[in-house]
Amino acid sequence: MLSPSQWKEADTERQAHNIPYLVNYEISSFEWESVNVVVKDRQSKRMKNILRDVSGHVNAGELVAIMGPSGSGKTTLLDVLAHRDSNKAQVSSTILINGQRPSLSQVRRFSSYVECDDALIGSLTVKETLEFAARLSLAGMKTADERTQRVDELLHAFGLVQQANTIIGTLVKKGISTGQKRRLSVAAQLIAAPKILFLDEPTSGLDSEASFNVMSFVRDVAKMNNLIVIVSIHQPSSMTFELFDKLLLLSAGKTCYYGDTGAVNAYFDDIGFPMPMLTNPADFLLRLTNIDFERDTHAAQERLDRVHGAWTLSRGTITSSDASSDTPSSLSEAEDPTMTSDRRPSFLHTTWVLIQRSWIKSGRDILVYGLRFGMYLGLAILIGTVWLRLPPTQSSLQPYANCVLFGSAFMSFMAVVYVPAFIEDRTVYVKDRANGLYGSTAFAISNFIVGLPYLFLIALASSSFIYWMVNFRPDGTAFLTWVMWMYLNLVAAESLVVLMSALFPNFVGALALTAMANGMWMACNGFMVPVTQLNPFYRYVFYYINYQAYVFRGLVSNEFGYRDYSCGKQCFCQFDTPLRDRCMIAGSGVLEMYGFGNESLPKQVGITLGIIAVIRLFGWAALKWRK
After folding, report:
1. Same domain flag for 45 and 128
2. CA gap 352, 349 in Å, rounded
3. Angle, to 10 degrees, between the axis of helix 601-625 and the axis of helix 440-470?
4. How far is CA 512 from the centre of its chain?
5. Count of domains forming the chain
6. Are residues 492 and 613 in the same domain?
């Protein structure tokens, strides 16, 4: 039993405020005719029909539910209607807005798509999420006060006022509930005042009460603002089912029914499939059209063929008064209903907003840079205590080189901790890009810029322990040079993580590929095998593009290139250098052993910066072309 306070809170969340926040509404109808989708089956290599001749029509202010068994084509149809066609599918369709064909850019400007998974930044609060959504979509024609007003209106409309200053939730800190996340996802797309809203499984993972609340809010907003809402939904409760104005029932890619939800019972009674009393219509329809679990598959297929055939016959006798009789033309710019709407913000404004959003996330989410800072600091203390106070003698030459290798290589390896944080950012980017908010360039630039100060702090803090505890060359300029190389090493390592995570946006895959690449860089960096003895294949293919090689070379040159070492009490010098008569070893002799000369420091830094730029460029390309 719920307490009186819980009942009051639940009742408050059910009621949307009567606030019309959508303006300049000019879309009166949305229509799709003869939607067909064909893909190649991976096993049989044959062409397979996902959707076959699916049609429908919806007017402003109506909610349409797309239902059907798993694999019936619900999400595929929703993607086609939202112009999110897959490159691997052959799609043929006629989609009309007010009886005219829209372009892809026009559809993206006046529609929004809420995916099944909540692509949200967990370290932001509910209000901040809406504020950033507003700044990314409304900056062109809206003042800051107007954007703030719209955010407040949506917080009230979706019952999120009490959670406004609560974070969404991260792996280490709990935030809002699943139902509240779903409402926030919808509200974040409504912030731009779209004319058409596509929802993919908005009630997935919610109980019946939370599902009803989410769809009630959507319905209230749609009715108040003449919004067209098209929803793919699996198995709603009877209360949720009644919220929809129309139903499109699919099975095996074909239409089983399309029309008013109130006419469902009468229609299936007429075709010989009466619905039992006190039955959830959604449950009945799914049992009727789902043949995957039937024991008698032949009888089940015959039943489904009867349902398909009955709809085909009834469709031929029905003439929709809303359908367009003339040949549809393209929607021209003069007739574009978005021309009176809000302009998208400029590229510079968008990039600045993304920088601010990423900066807040980086500061709050300990998994982004906080955990890495602690790990790097712990590694630095470990290195400093293991190689503690090495004397400048011949016996310390190899330990010095080992310390340089271990420090630089493992600093690079540990950048894999950034993989989950970037994958979360990429998920949000994919959603926002599909809704036309920003592209890969703004996202890549903001991601790069935000990481620079954090990586510098990590490089400075870790170097302060390693350099002075190990007793590298005691010189302020040499220390700053060490910090610079460590900084470039971390920037390059993070760039590699971005590239791999953009190519394979999966935690395990990105982690494995990044670790493998780091292992390859480490093996070919000139320490394990001197450059002059390295296999020509690895030298020309991997060494000269290996940022770890230039970092290792820069660090050992910073130590050995400007320091001399004592040969010991017996004056036995392992390296024949000009200082042998003085029982000393010139560090330049050690560099010659590795095949390193006295290369120009600016040249080596320039090459390393070039490698970072190329990796980032490839990462940008992967973000742009990887779906």
Report:
1. yes
2. 5
3. 140
4. 19
5. 2
6. yes
